[in-house]
Amino acid sequence: AQSVAQPEDQVNVAEGNPLTVKCTYSVSGNPYLFWYVQYPNRGLQFLLKYITGDNLVKGSYGFEAEFNKSQTSFHLKKPSALVSDSALYFCAVRDVSRDTGRRALTFGSGTRLQVQP
Amino acid sequence: DAGVIQSPRHEVTEMGQEVTLRCKPISGHDYLFWYRQTMMRGLELLIYFNNNVPIDDSGMPEDRFSAKMPNASFSTLKIQPSEPRDSAVYFCASRAGSGAEAFFGQGTRLTVV
Does B58 touch chain A (CB under 8 A)? Predict the structure, then answer.
């Protein structure tokens, strides 16, 4: 089985400050991890992914995320938040093990990021 | 490429009516997914296809829901008969290969009254 937890329903941060959106995952085997962003009345847009290799991955719009296997976490970060970053953020996981893997993503419940001017 | 295209964008229908949602994936993508988004349950996978073949339909809530992919460029999700609890935003997504990210359409907002 594969699952994702986003423990915060909402994160508030002032513009210019660093932001972190938390994500922890559970898989039987090895994970592929993704972050998506959703703006009002829009579909999900891909931000970044971890497949293998460097634990720190960089993505669109200045976002980055760090894969931590021991803590089973994949937190999304940005050094300096913008008001335009305000949106709904989803973490997603896929277990890619041959025996237990599933070819579709399981999404977390989402975290609403609010950046105040 | 125009991305994943879904139609209609909005659908309002009466309980008991048949509803058909449509999706055109990105050309060359071999995986297609249907998700449903509600406030209560978040994003749920309904079904996915690989090379037009349904692989996992365990997320389809009831027999009232059915999905088809007659060719690589078209898929439908049908609800018959529709019920008010089916009201949600339905997303289609496609992906090229195992390690790639999925691209989502704009979604169809379904309201059943």
Answer: no
Judging contacts by C-beta atoms under 8 Å, the chain A residues touching residue B31 are 103
Ranges of chain B whose pLDDT falls below 50: none
Q: How far is B105 from chain A (nearest CA, A)?
A: 6
Averaged pLDDT of chain A:
92
* Span A55-77, pLDDT tens digits: 999 999 999 999 999 999 999 99
Question: Does A52 score more than 90 pLDDT?
Answer: no
Among all chains, which residue has been given the structure tokens 């709904």?
Answer: A88
Whole-number pLDDT of residue B66? 97
Give the whole-angstrom CA distance, residue A28 versus residue A101.
Answer: 8
CA–CA separation, B83 vs A23, rounded Å? 34
Q: In chain B, how long is the greatest CA-to-CA distance?
A: 41
Q: What is the per-residue pLDDT across A72-93, written as a single tens digit (0 to 9) for each? A: 999 999 999 999 999 999 999 9
Distances from the Cα of B37 to the Cαs of A49, A98, B33, in angstroms?
Answer: 22, 28, 13
Report DSSP state, residue B58: T
* Chain A, window 82-101: residues with a beta carbon less than 8 angstroms from a chain B beta carbon: 90, 96
Residue of B23, B29, B40, B43 for testing the chain A interface, max A β-carbons within 10 Å: B43
Q: What is the C-alpha separation between A85 and A79, in angstroms, rounded? A: 12
Name which of B101, B106, B108, B109 to mutate to probe chain A: the one with the most chain A Cβ atoms within 10 A of its Cβ.
Answer: B101
